[in-house]
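User: What would this chain look like folded?
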Amino acid sequence: MTIKVFLKDKSELSFPCDVLVLPVLEAEGVKAYRDIDKAMKGLPGSVIASGEITGKHKEVCLLHREGRITPRRILLVGLGKRSELSREKVRQAGGTALSALRNGRAGDIALSSRLFPALKISPADFLEGLLLGSYRFEKYRKENDRKRIRRITILSSQKISREVKRAEAATRAAWLARDLVNTPSNEMTPSALAAAARSLKNVTVRVINRKEAEKLGMGAYLSVAKGSTEPPKFIVITYKKTKGAPVVLIGKSITFDSGGISLKPSEGMEKMKYDMAGGAAVLGVMQALSELGLPLHIVAVLPATENLPGGSASKPGDVVKTIEGKSIEIISTDAEGRMALADAIGYAKRFKPSAIIDIATLTGACSIALGNEAVAMMGNDAALMKKLERASEETGEKVWTMPLFDEYGEYIKSDIADLKNSGGRSGSLVTAGYFLKECAGRVPWVHLDIAGAAWTDKDRPYAPKGGTGIGTRLLLSFLMNRDLPRA
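Assistant: Here's the prediction, encoded as structure tokens.
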């Protein structure tokens, strides 16, 4: 998917395009566009006066050319009330505008930015919504959508090229994550995920195979892989543009999760291709970093495998050891994500990181607690979580902090091992987090459970049905805009 973005200091009235997008504020009419309204013989103003569009958030109204203007059509897009405006609302308005134009043969769009300076919000946020909303997964369709947008021009005299470049990189990162999640598991295997990692530029990639993982003592991770004929791939990606201790991003990368011997119900199991959404988000982040060339030191770890039943599969009651020698009793083979992450966290410690952030579709309890609206966040470092909260506010990818009380440790105590991988239904969201806390030890660490938000069954303002790419923009914003903790 390719959309070219341009910045031009040109007049809206004379700029040739299929559609000129005019963002409008609720109850403020066409004050910002009086020249355009006059050139169109008062058409925009009369439409607003009639109440057909009032400027409420996500309202849209498409007008055909009237009077002496060059654009073929005008799209009025509501931003809502000035006092309630936010970057996320602007982003959502951009996504809504895209939806309104999708079937209108609007290949060439121009965006008026004259309203944004006074709002202290960059038009790059509206652009990001447009771009994110343009995503479609059509790899397996015989006939693709040929009406798609090819070109977006921001009409602005502001110096916003840096913001635009970052919005484009963040969007491409989210597109990559969505593509990886939406690809079915017969093609998106651990080997395919490793190939996707190797395709990235300006990074070094190491792929640890089963034999090497055995030598390293990754018994927890390999216990998940035992039932599958697909070879596991423990993927390590290093992006280093500065000295110092790295931040390690870990993405759960179970390319299909049947639950193993603890088999999931068949209804909805086809969605379990999305169980590598954490790894997909991390790959998207690494792609954006490589494009932007930011002065950071980041290591990504993707413990990729399938979780399937079979004659050699792990069984409930089995005991395995992590890379750090901790013994784990397997209560449920469907609690496999934390097993893979346990060894990924243990391996990450070898880099002496300043922080570890893992992102995973870890528990069904996450969607029960938070629906499809937010990411559950847990960790052992309040300052690190605060920085992620600020990144959440910037990107609109909501996080909600859950507790990790010491008492939860009692839930995962095993009678025969150091830990058990499931404490049962009660508190299952937080006990899964506590399990990972035991693995993280004293290293600054945050866990992001994206199980509820990584997939959507309905179109959203800038996320169509399917994989959402959640976490990609959140982590990228965190890395780009925050001072990272020192080792």
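The first helix runs from residue 34 to 39. If you want, I can go into more detail on any region.
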